[in-house]
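Encode chain A's predicted structure.
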Amino acid sequence: MITSVEASAGNGYDGHYLPSLIESDLSQRLNIDMCTADRGYDDTDDHFFLQTRGIRSAFHLNRYRTHKRDPNKQVWLELKAQPWYKYLVRGTSPV
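Encoded structure for chain A:
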């Protein structure tokens, strides 16, 4: 369900809008446990922001997160393997 909208230019960085959108939802006492967004929001700061508020991130991940050659990609691979992540990102069954 879309709960907040903020218009921006199509060629700009979207990630800096996330905190204000989430804070707006939380101020309305919406019960938020997951957040999905396109790759424009796939920023480490945004993932951390959600994590500190107990909200699971289901952003479409940029390819570099899962195809890099270092151990830091494991956390992203584990995220992509979660049934709820697959459901939110791909629309497949959460089972």
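The radius of gyration is 14 Å.
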